Amino acid sequence: MSETNPAATGMPVDAAPYRYTAAVAAEIEARWQDFWDAEGTYAAPNQSGDLAGDPELAARPKKFIMDMFPYPSGAGLHVGHPLGYIATDVFARYQRMTGHNVLHTLGFDAFGLPAEQHAVQTGEHPRITTEAAINNMKSQLRQLGLGHDKRRSFATIDPDYYKWTQWIFLQIFNSWYDDEAKKARPIADLVAQFESGERAVPGGGSWSALSATERADVLGGYRLAYASDAPVNWCPGLGTVLANEEVTADGRSERGNFPVFKAKLRQWNMRITAYADRLLDDLNELDWPEAIKLQQRNWIGRSEGARVDFPVDGERITVFTTRPDTLFGASYMVLAPEHPLVDKFTPDAWPEGTHDVWTGGHATPADAVTAYRAQAASKSDVERQAEAKDKTGVFIGSYATNPVNGERIPVFIADYVLMGYGTGAIMAVPCGDQRDFEFARAFELPIRCIVEPTDGRGTDTSTWEDAFGAYDAKIINSTGEGVSLDGLGVVEAKARIIEWLEREGVGEGTVNFRLRDWLFSRQRYWGEPFPIVYDEEGVAHALPESMLPLELPEVEDYSPRTFEPDDADTRPETPLSRNEDWVNVTLDLGDGRGPRPYRRETNTMPNWAGSCWYELRYLDPHNSERLVDPEIERYWMGPREGQPHGGVDLYVGGAEHAVLHLLYARFWSKVLFDLGHVSSAEPFHRLFNQGMIQAFAYTDSRGVYVPAAEVEEQDGKFFYQGRPVKREYGKMGKSLKNAVTPDEICGEYGADTLRLYEMAMGPLDVSRPWDTRAVVGQFRLLQRLWRNVVDEATGEVTVVDAEPGEDTLRALHKAIDGVRQDLEGMRFNTAIAKVTELNNHLTKVGGPVSRSVAEALVLLVAPLAPHIAEELWRKLGHTDSVVHRDFPVADPAYAVDEAVTCVVQIKGKVKARLEVSPAISEEELEKVALGDEKVVAALAGAPIRKVIVRAPKLVNIVT
After folding, report:
1. Three-state DSSP class for residue 815
2. Cα-flanking dihedrals φ and ψ of residue 298, to 5°?
3. d(CA 415, CA 727)
4. Cβ partners under 8 Å of residue 239, min gap 6
5. Which residues, in sequence order, are CB contacts of 6 under 8 Å at separation 6+?
6. CA 212/CA 71 separation, integer angstroms
7. Each residue of 30-81: pLDDT tens digit?
8. Measured between alpha carbons, how far is 242 from 245 in angstroms, rounded to an integer?
9. What is the pLDDT of residues 252-263, one digit of tens each?
10. Upstream peptide bond of 572 is cis (omega within 30 degrees of 0)
11. Please, which residues bridge with residue 914 across strands?
12. Does the chain have fewer CB atoms within 10 Å around its N or its C terminus?
């Protein structure tokens, strides 16, 4: 029988006209949502008005609480999406009720591929579908009763917003990283150093003698945002390049699952590598899950070693190695196929004595290199680094010189070396590295033993089955002119060889990072245009701030051309490039040169750009004069005790953004901090990763998913339209046809029930299964709460002004104490359990509930189920909102147990249980235990060697 049916209580239907039903919940919730909007209940105080005019308000502590930007999907929300939003809402409501000024709002990350893919297929402008999706999502979120400050909401596609995204890009473009100062500085400072001679111009000469193009090239080597011709992840199926973080482990695009190839294109990059050390070090001060910190540390990948130069025909190949102590074992070199020196070092013919196995069967080195490059381009970086059984590569026809012993060693290209790590070149030491070992065996290269094996295999490498890479082995066979490492351990050997390299001028100790510069160009339409134009010499110029925002023009075709999803040789033609009137313009940039012809940049920024700084726009969303008012930023995000780098107080979202959004946003924050635009060097002080709501999905005999809502269970088996289906468990979503919308649950039970169920399902940071049938349990809780205040037959309030009994006082204050601790610790499931326990206690006691207890209970519920709390608060005679009411405070006298059970053990066996005060001292508890008649009998006069007391719950006696 339905719980929404009044007869479900055993009461006649017409006897409960004021019962809490789904219809009543819907009416209450809509009415209070309208009230909150009309009253501006959730408006966060601002510096220019509220705080400046109200000293008491200004003295309150603050909490800036954020959810990760949602992307507005045309499919709308399913019940898994609001999990984090409800959690932050509960936490924000609790913070308001405990005296905090709270900023909590939500915007929309609206640029990106999904809307553009739809535009490509239909010809409909992506703004139309995106704004429709935003409006639908706003409606769905509103019915959940989320306490957002709606004045501060925006979408990244708003020109007033992306004006400042473009402005930040220009700050980065017009900056360089000063390694001595360890911070970003304006590029004008660098120019001044070149002009004065304080800093030498790369390549020699004077700054004044350089042409404009030459100066631009020099500055491009320093700028934090720069364009370069470099190997990129080219995805023809999406018509764009991708950052390393957007490519899956099997070499396909994270979105769309298209093949990704290596290609050389001119692209914009962000010099995030300049901040590698700071990005690592500052993690220590952040309150983040250790798993996320570890992912970032691994992605940044700091390693110490040495840079070593290997001469090649008057030039040199530079390598980075973490094991310079193994230099004497280097018997060949490998360059990444994309390395710029490959063409320079590839001769017209094979040198005399070249082994056949080295040539790959090609007539010339150039033929071999060309063929091998094409083969390597079809693999992702992950595939290239995989431990393949067969090692591939070709000799490029040149030899390098090992600087420690003068030996000539051949230079190969091979796909297991990546341009994106170190210098794109390695010295191969097959004795100690398994991949080098396998390559050396495949290409008949020397394997010199330079460490003393400790596993009994001996030093004859021809008998070895694999490499020997022990770090604690002694160095052998490593003596050259002026240096010997023989007999040393690894640490001592590394120090000695680095000292020798630096003395001889052929290398130096250095630090390397796995992190690569951030590829920042996308060959798509639906993104922020770059505020960059090129003059007739191809020099890039920044648009002046007065020309921002540079808005997207209209185009007839949103498709990038021309591409085939599986063709690595195609190249992008961007949608913007086909709008000639927009691309080719005459502008006066205010640089004194007057109006001149320019060509606009036709790439757009990646979808990550808008989410790199959105926390700042929440602070000051309507400021058209500056990025953010410094006083406002300092109040909400500035450094304070326990938060030395400042940042958002609580940021909730998925763990999948560990090395994408989170790393990029940290980089932008640090640049803005260095340039003096913000006081916070970190964007998010505390990070919390919520789990995922999962659900059962069902597939038919073809493996095709069927609608989960239409599957029937019979005797433990599952059927769809009478045919058996297979059940599986996983992520909820449209593709698995197992999504449940919040609209459905709100329609059947109300938003407060949905909120309670999602919070009660389990700890917030773990994944949990959705079960629609279980939702009714939280609905019943709200019905019992309602019934404890309202007469279901008359609608009258039933509370009385009499004082509650002691049992009820203890139940109340224990609940207050526990719920406070749970809400503070974001343990919402246990907070709900404590509310339920108190509510059940009142039901069990029976009779009218004391007003003081009822009011406290309503306030306890208010953060979790705000609509019913507001309604009951009003029925209890109050004219104000519960939102800004003080949260109840427990009376310590009632919050502790009146007595606790103490277990007394003798030789590890329980001999007595004592009821004692929870505040009893260890001395008193020992005295009571030893005097208990059961303990005395159990001891039977045996001498006591030791008494271990853990007041108030344990006494352990050792005889």
Report:
1. helix
2. -65, -40
3. 42
4. 523, 524, 559, 560, 561, 563, 572
5. 12, 13, 15, 16, 17, 19, 21, 792
6. 43
7. 999 999 999 999 999 986 667 777 888 888 999 999 999 999 987 789 999 9
8. 8
9. 887 788 888 877
10. no
11. 902
12. N
- What are the structure tokens assigned to 353, written together? 């004595």
Other beta carbons within 10 Å of 858:
25
Q: Are strands 909-916 and 584-587 parallel, antiparallel or unpaired?
A: unpaired
pLDDT at 489 over 90: yes
Structure tokens at 791: 């007469």
Write down the pLDDT at residue 614: 98
Tokens at residue 624, please?
A: 């058209």
Q: Summarize the confidence of residues 106-121 as an average pLDDT.
A: 89
pTM of this structure: 0.85
Q: What is the DSSP string of 77-115?
A: --TTTTHHHHHHHHHHHHHHHTT-EEEE---B---SHHH
Q: What is the pLDDT of residue 587?
A: 97
CATH of domain 1-39+740-896: 1.10.730.10
Nearest 5°: the CA angle 294, 662, 227 is 110
Angle (nearest 5°) at CA 175 between 173 and 176: 115
Cβ distance 247 to 260 under 8 Å?
yes
> Does residue 674 carry a pLDDT above 70?
yes
- Beta strand pairing status for 900-906 and 954-958? parallel
pLDDT at position 382 is 66
> Using alpha carbons only, what angle is made at residue 390 by residues 384 and 392, rounded to the nearest 5 degrees?
60
What totals of helices (H) and strands (E) does the chain contain, helices first? Answer: 31, 34
Fold of 41-159+615-689: Rossmann fold (3.40.50)
Q: How confident is the model at residue 569 (pLDDT cuts 50, 70, 90)?
A: low
Structure confidence by residue, pLDDT tens digits, 319-350: 999 999 999 999 999 999 999 999 999 999 99
Domain 897-958 bears CATH identifier 3.40.710.10: no
What digits encode the pLDDT tens for the residues 902-956?
A: 999 998 899 999 998 888 899 999 999 999 999 999 999 899 999 999 999 999 9
Over residues 352-365, mean pLDDT: 94
Name the residue type at position 569: D
Instruction: Report, as an integer, the average pLDDT of 635-654.
Output: 96
Confidence category of residue 120, pLDDT binned at 50, 70, 90 = confident
Candidates 592, 374, 430, 402; CA nearest to 507 is: 402
Q: Is the dihedral of CA 683, 689, 690, 694 positive or negative?
A: positive
Q: Are 921 and 843 in contact (CB under 8 A)?
A: no
CA separation, residue 80 to residues 105, 732, 945 (Å):
19, 7, 59
Q: Where are the domains of the chain?
A: 1-39+740-896, 41-159+615-689, 167-283+518-589, 302-513, 695-738, 897-958
- What is the spatial distance between Cα 530 and Cα 523, in angstroms, rounded to a whole number? 12
